[in-house]
Automatic annotation (TrEMBL):
<dbReference type="InterPro" id="IPR023393">
    <property type="entry name" value="START-like_dom_sf"/>
</dbReference>
<protein>
    <recommendedName>
        <fullName>Ligand-binding SRPBCC domain-containing protein</fullName>
    </recommendedName>
</protein>
Amino acid sequence: MKLSLYTPVAAPLLAVWEGFDEALFKKLSPPFPPVRLVRFDGSYTGDLVALELNFFLFKQTWISRIADQQETGDEIYFIDEGIKLPFFLAFWRHKHRLLRQKSGGTLIADEIEYRTPFLLTDYLMYPLLYAQFAYRQPIYKRIFS
């Protein structure tokens, strides 16, 4: 299943890229489930990010590896791939794209591909994941205004 969200921000490309750090990651975490950041190496190839999701009655570990990171004059991107996922996900690939805009701003693109253990739950997860990533849009706008 694929999901994409796009957020235009006023800040220039390099400023947005420099802002993609641990502090931003923490601000982007939605209120539910509460997330504890266990490890954040960064956004370069080989880096790891480990999370603990707290569903109150149980906790789940999520570990992603940065599989690729590239920079050109007009785009910077990195891809995180799930290597240990919560039980409700079977596959995770998230491409974070930062695209230079002619206006001088940046377009932040979240391009996600995921699978759950069952096709039906792929569709049931879509609105939940959409809401999780839509939550980020006003945060991006506020931070990169």
